[in-house]
């Protein structure tokens, strides 16, 4: 396949997100301006100007009208996807790390980092239909985990919130009361901080990637460990194919810790594994730096990866990808 | 494919009346942008005119090939979104912006290689070659070094070797026996040194002396192979043999190799010159190979 290279960001990529219909791709990077691209040919549609710090995460509403972004400038902003206009800003006392819209886009879960005496927290804000009616109050605030919470997502039917972070423990919280329902088992769980989390298309299982060079597949209801995928590099980003039983892991060591004799240009790769057999199917090379973000198009026919090198690479699969046999 | 053709043409106005700052206001002087749509090969040419910083009229021709990469079936809403106007930093998107490019390389989902596969491949190749007796086959087979698919005999990089080694594949035992067999078969080509009546005794002497002229090279990069070493060392004199240690499982170089010179003086000069030489981002270490105990 011939990937499409999109160099819209001057700084490393942090997150990639497709809209529900798979025709738009939003990329977030450390350079303050999330960008939206057309997902078929990589043409840039626009950028959202307004943040003053690295943008860590974003989410798009189901109707592709609303974009929410979390930034290190201690704010979470709501944007009109089409015009790029800022609709609302939620302010916090510490950098915001992760956002996720609930299934009906009426609520959003936001995590904030530990910062200068403030502990990390999970906040739930309600999203009004009319942006002018939007209030900044939290519906629910959960504190408890030590260390950064790198990702928090809604569980099935918005009943639960799943969080994972620096302390390498996955927690499931009740979304109405804020009570801790489950914690992942320390023995089988990750050994180092969890960098990324992605849900399956139906929400029944989710995949976490960690700096301990592995990714693990968990059941959403019971938080039991289903599968483990081992790699040679710390995992920064994970993605699951909505079409086939594939998981993709992306990662790579920091440039500063790699000896010059070992790695060469274009050698960082996104590794494909068979979800059920835990075996590596192959790798897609090309990035010049560690891969920080991965996303699958909801139709499963293409995926994109964002790297430390500032490039977004959009890959449309060849027909032989769909007939891979083990 | 992207071709930029800039030709500065002076404007037809009297340059004395023309102010530097007015350059941009003279946009009406520019011919309109022309788009010659995708033809049957998908080649699209866009010709744009603008004023560059020096106030010269500049013509930028962008040639792109429009390729259908994938079938995207868009919903009605998605088709509407396609027509949204640009915002933010994308407002000033012009033809010359190279933000989105299709990669020039074909990237494949590389399947991880099974361990057994590679070793099998090379072994079979070695036997086949010896069987052919280095006659001209459909494949490009070189008589001197036996490397198939690489070059013909007249273009062999190992032309000047005194004793042509049969193959460089790590199965010397297999090839030697095969050679004896093909020597016996009629019509198979046997190099002069291997024929009966050749200077066998001198040959073994030469070989022994060659082993004393053996130079060990260490700290080689992963993808250094025999031809690279040969190119590097041949300037010092005739090289009779080169060898690079390869890890069979991964196919990468183990970082060291041996070069045998015909003359000891050449080997000595090579050591003096190339020890500490930077090659492929690594500093080479070149020294006498320790004599192997027989």
UniProtKB/TrEMBL annotation, chain A:
- Cell compartment(s), UniProt: Cytoplasm
The organism named in the record is: Salix purpurea
Put simply, this protein is called Eukaryotic translation initiation factor 3 subunit I
> What is the phylogenetic placement of the source species in the record?
Eukaryota, Viridiplantae, Streptophyta, Embryophyta, Tracheophyta
What's its job? Answer: Component of the eukaryotic translation initiation factor 3 (eIF-3) complex, which is involved in protein synthesis of a specialized repertoire of mRNAs and, together with other initiation factors, stimulates binding of mRNA and methionyl-tRNAi to the 40S ribosome. The eIF-3 complex specifically targets and initiates translation of a subset of mRNAs involved in cell proliferation.
- Tell me one GO biological process term: formation of cytoplasmic translation initiation complex
Query: How the protein assembles, per its UniProt entry?
Result: Component of the eukaryotic translation initiation factor 3 (eIF-3) complex.
Identify a single GO molecular function assigned to this protein: RNA binding
What PROSITE patterns does this protein's entry cite? WD_REPEATS_1, WD_REPEATS_2, WD_REPEATS_REGION
Q: What keywords would UniProt list here?
A: Cytoplasm, Initiation factor, Protein biosynthesis, Repeat, WD repeat
Q: Which domain of life is it from?
A: Eukaryota
TrEMBL record, chain B:
Family per UniProt? Belongs to the eIF-3 subunit G family.
Write down the superkingdom of origin. Answer: Eukaryota
Question: Would the keyword Acyltransferase be found if you checked this record's keyword annotation?
Answer: no
The record ties this protein, via SUPFAM superfamilies, to: RNA-binding domain, RBD
Against HAMAP family, the record matches this protein to: eIF3g
Please tell me where this protein is predominantly located: cytoplasm
Reported function: RNA-binding component of the eukaryotic translation initiation factor 3 (eIF-3) complex, which is involved in protein synthesis of a specialized repertoire of mRNAs and, together with other initiation factors, stimulates binding of mRNA and methionyl-tRNAi to the 40S ribosome. The eIF-3 complex specifically targets and initiates translation of a subset of mRNAs involved in cell proliferation. This subunit can bind 18S rRNA.
Q: Which residues form the RRM domain?
A: 213-291
Pfam families of this UniProt entry?
eIF3g, RRM_1
Q: Does the keyword RNA-binding apply?
A: yes
- Please give the name of this protein: Eukaryotic translation initiation factor 3 subunit G
Q: Which GO terms describe its molecular function?
A: RNA binding; translation initiation factor activity
Q: How does it assemble?
A: Component of the eukaryotic translation initiation factor 3 (eIF-3) complex.
InterPro entries assigned to the protein according to its UniProt record, in alphabetical order: eIF3_g (IPR017334), eIF3g_N (IPR024675), eIF3G_RRM (IPR034240), Nucleotide-bd_a/b_plait_sf (IPR012677), RBD_domain_sf (IPR035979), RRM_dom (IPR000504)
Compartment(s) where it occurs, according to its Swiss-Prot or TrEMBL record: Cytoplasm
Which Gene Ontology BP terms does the record give?
Answer: formation of cytoplasmic translation initiation complex
The alphabetical list of record keywords is: Cytoplasm, Initiation factor, Protein biosynthesis, RNA-binding
- What GO terms fall under cellular component here? eukaryotic 43S preinitiation complex; eukaryotic 48S preinitiation complex; eukaryotic translation initiation factor 3 complex
For this protein, the record's CDD domains field holds: eIF3G, RRM_eIF3G_like
Annotated region Disordered: where? 183-213
